[in-house]
Amino acid sequence: MSLEDKIRNELVKEDPKYLEEHLQDAKKIFSLTDSGDINIEVNNPSQKDRILIHFIGLKYAHEGGMRDSCSQHYKDLCGELGLNQSSARVALSNWKSKGFIKQPDTGVYELDASSLGEIIEFMEDKYEK
After folding, report:
1. Residue 113 sits in a domain of what CATH number?
2. Which of 54, 73, 82, 106 is the 20 to 30 Å CA partner of 38?
């Protein structure tokens, strides 16, 4: 095996690898409907945490073929979750600064799957059933 192959196989983690690696733990914080709707399974999450859980769910729903995209404009996010736009922007900015959310375009956000393990651990510690 060439060095290039070793690097690709051993160092590069693609989104589906992260998602599969954390699938069992992810089920503890959200579930999906057949149509890709995201149901948050933790009790009384903060607005900020609801946003992060929602983006985790979007990523899984997209990989599962239930959503066309794992990205979402903050206005659509607010409509879907019933959130205030300015509060949502503050929360998104906070998660982005921690490296949990990335912004591929103006007003559009998505989960940074490379942080999935850290995010799920954070959620489990905070919302243990």
Report:
1. 1.10.10
2. 106
Domain extent for 43 = 3-126
- Give the residue-averaged pLDDT of 88-116: 94
| C-alpha to C-alpha distances, 71 to 4, 43, 96, nearest whole angstrom | 30, 25, 14
Local confidence band at 114 (pLDDT 50, 70, 90 cut-offs): confident
Q: What is the dihedral of CA 114, 116, 118, 124, to 10 degrees?
A: 180
CA separation for the pair 120, 124 (Å, rounded): 6
The residue to which tokens 């600064």 are assigned: 97
What's this model's pTM, rounded to 2 decimal places?
Answer: 0.86
Find where tokens 């559009």 sit: 108
The span from the CA of 103 to the CA of 88, in Å, is 14
| pLDDT, tens only, 16-75 | 777 888 899 999 999 999 999 999 999 999 999 999 999 999 999 999 999 999 999 999
Domain count, the chain: 1
Three-state SS for 40? strand
